[in-house]
Amino acid sequence: MENAEVWIDKGIDFVVEFGPKVIGAILIYIIGSWIIKKLIGVVNKGMTKQNYDESLKKFLLNLAKWALTIFLIITVISTLGVETTSFAAVIAAAGLAIGLALQGSLSNFAGGVLLIIFKPYKIGDLIEAQGVLGSVKEIEIFTTKLITPENKLAIVPNGAMANGNIVNYTAEGKIRVDTTVGVDYGSDLQKTKDVLLAMLKANPQVLQDPAPSVNVSELADSSVNLAVRPFCKPEDYWDVYFATIEGTKKALDSAGIEIPYPHEVQINK
Predict the structure, then answer these.
(1) How do residues 185-226 score in pLDDT, each as one tens digit?
(2) pTM reported for the whole predicted model
(3) In angstroms, rounded to a whole number, what is the distance separating the alpha carbons of residues 191 and 196?
(4) ∠ at Cα 120 (115, 123), nearest 5°?
(5) Residue 158, exposed/middle/buried by CB under 10 A (0-12, 13-18, 19+)?
(6) Which helix H or strand E contains 28, and what residues bound it?
(7) Residues 263, 174: Cα–Cα separation, whole Å
(8) What is the pLDDT of residues 11-41, one digit of tens each?
(9) Cα–Cα distance list, 206 to 89, 136, 171 (Å)
(10) How far apart are CA 220 and CA 222, in angstroms?
(11) Which among 4, 12, 43, 174 counts the fewest CB atoms within 10 Å?
């Protein structure tokens, strides 16, 4: 009986000493969680009104939620009487170690944030970056996914994308298709230009503003080279490119204009 009384007294002392702290910690956690939820909701509405990019919005909301939750947990632990100074030091040391270990990933993360904020390209744009040409499929926090003309998936780190050169072929809404054709030196240049221009204008995918052009670009060893340059929408680039090459051959053949090809001359003594 004496032992039981001792344990009961200790239990009462424990409840008297720690009961208010536990109840306070529980209340702080409940109220703090409610406040965090409301704050995240307000921030979410504000970002939606400002038309934030969906990827950036989700990332920032998650980051804010985790930061506030960690702060709340530290506050609850402190309320229970646990010394948080050493706890915070451990978190800081762990954060530093993780940061050093993931230095490359953090660079890609920072690059992804910059790309989402400044938007040098968007989903669907045809771009060339880091030696890769393709249409943007996805812009993620760490990588950008491109679909190449060969229908291959290229995954490029955002750190390199943010710090390298980016050529956006879609941004202006028009793109020039550059091809070159050589004709015989005896050809009528004006007729040749008229034939090629008529071929370009007959293609509905070729834009008339800016107008297509055909100009002499070089007097080569065995041919007069002409730069054939139609404009089109970025999504029509490859269709116009191949149609221009094929159309050039057919148009010149129909007009009787010769396209030179290598000749071999044999001299017998």
Answers:
(1) 989 999 999 999 999 999 999 999 899 999 999 998 889 999
(2) 0.59
(3) 9
(4) 85
(5) buried
(6) helix 2-49
(7) 40
(8) 666 555 666 777 777 888 888 889 888 888 8
(9) 65, 24, 18
(10) 6
(11) 4
